[in-house]
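Q: I'm writing up a methods section and want to include an example of the input and output format. Could you take the sequence below and give the corresponding predicted structure tokens, formatted cleanly so I can copy it straight into the document?
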Amino acid sequence: MCGIAGIVSPRLPAGAVRIVCEMVAQIAHRGPDAQAVVHDEQCVLGHALLAIAGGEASRQPMSDDRRQHWISYNGEIYNGPELQRELESLANRFRRGCDTEIVLAALRTWGDRAVERFNGGFALAYYNRATAAVLLARDEFGKRPLYYTRSGGVLAFASEVKAFLALPWLALRYDEAALGTLYWTSAVTAPETVFQGVYQVCPGECIWIRNGQISRTSAKRRPVHRYLGSRADAMHELRHRIAKSVRRRAQANRPVTVLASGGLDSSIVATELAADTARQVTAYSIAFPNTEYDESAAQEAVCASLGLAHRGIVVTSATIAAGFRDALVHAEQPIPTVAPVPMYHLARQLHADGYAVALSGEGADEMFLGYGVFKEVLLRGAISDRPGAAADLASVYGGWSESVDVAVHSVVRRFANPQDLLHSHLPRYYNNKTAASALARGIPLRQARDIEERTYADLAGLDAIARARALELSKLLAGYLLSVQGDRMAMSWGIENRCPFLDADVVALAVSLPHEWHLPLDGPEKKILRDAYRDRLPGIVVDRAKRSYLAPDVAFVQSRDADPLFQEFADALGKGELPWASRPHGEYLLARRKTARQNSAILPYPHARALLLLLSTFALERDLATRKGAFHRRTIEARGEAVTVTPIAGLTSRAPGARGARRAR
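A: Here is the clean output for your methods example:
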């Protein structure tokens, strides 16, 4: 995995090469092995390399032999050998032995139709000099990030928003409508970001830039073909496809580890990794002093049963406070939970121990219906004719209200229409009203709901479970888990996170299976996945109830370790320096925090969530957006000397190179 950046325009702005060099320097943590820029009269491409599979041969930006087709590419594809054989039959020749060369040849041969054939996680910029056209594209799940911003006829793109600190014409300011959506729904949905004028390339989308104009091809929704075999056949095929997926993702010339949470999904990945390699595998985990969040016992049981070495890092409130602001700068959006911060510390430990690749269980809960939201959809549909449904719902919603009965019946009554596009998620959005009220110019739930319904209009016609899965894939997986908590925290220390459950072949099988094989009304979630691995995993893992990765949000918010952060926020709020925050609501929430501590009481979770959103919105603005100059200068002084600049042969660039940058000979 790497970092990419660039500027495209029929008339490049003055200093374009220098600017892209500085953009690459801002994201050099994504690619610490080499940083380079190439340019001609209309396009400047930059790249920061994390060399995992191709070594020196994978240096980028890369061109074909005629230097007419160029690519700056971030990620990995895992069906490269199959594509290479097909491309060789079409007179393509390969000499570098890396997947970047295959991706470039596929784009040159098939155009943007190649993108839907790639099995992996990627974001790319492809430049065809003959047509002066640039293609930006991402994988269908949004595993790898890609942003862009426009000013006149100039388009800049990068793997991370902080690269845009190099753009003299852009000031990073919050988009208050996007903040409102985030506070209600916990994530923004592509193409939006929390910054004005900054957009995401949507997962699976292709954007062409020609002569300063943009055209886009929207992602095609994956076709679902109903599985026709038996349940036993499906379990056998699942094991085969998951094992193949893990083998594909274990290929690297750098050490590979697995993130072992102690849950079913990461344990399956660890099982297949241990079976596939003759090397000693060390699994890494996060532990907490609080037993409510700690899963050390399950982690150790899995590692012991598989013969894996195990290393855990213990995360406390002090640890979270120490890494909060650094993690937030990499997250690049406010966070409703401190969960990314332990992942930031874990990535730092992996980096210190010499790792560059980590496998995880991300994606399994979405594909195999592991989250509670899927069970809720079933129970809400059965509450009128199934006596136990209300009690089961009460156990889910009990933490949302002082009265469980009121909470259950209020949710069912308020959001009763199963045909509603957002039926599965509206109770969760409604529960975030405390946070949404903390914005000075926030949006009402009705407006947030309208925005979401327009975004997901194409889900109409799907059944309730399929709609819930599609929302989880877009909102939680792409909008938060793979990005804020996954890619950003891992790549802040140069660690590539690979997700075997998001392999195209695994996904195609998972979504083809009947919902009841995944989630029987009276059985556990991910039932077929549990049964498929029952003979290969310890019972403590196979039979334990699903536990999401939780972080001690309330404990951190109430801790004295967080006092300096909240004091700085309170001072800025009191001075009227935060126009996006509601001062009365902010002061009320700070007072509730103080009172809860004085009374040795537990702060209600909605209040803790609202305080975390306010604190992170403040800290991100203070540390990134409003300190653009100082933050950018520090980064350039530390990294800018390392960027190599190469003019594309045959053209003389009008733009000067970066100060101190090395020019290729």
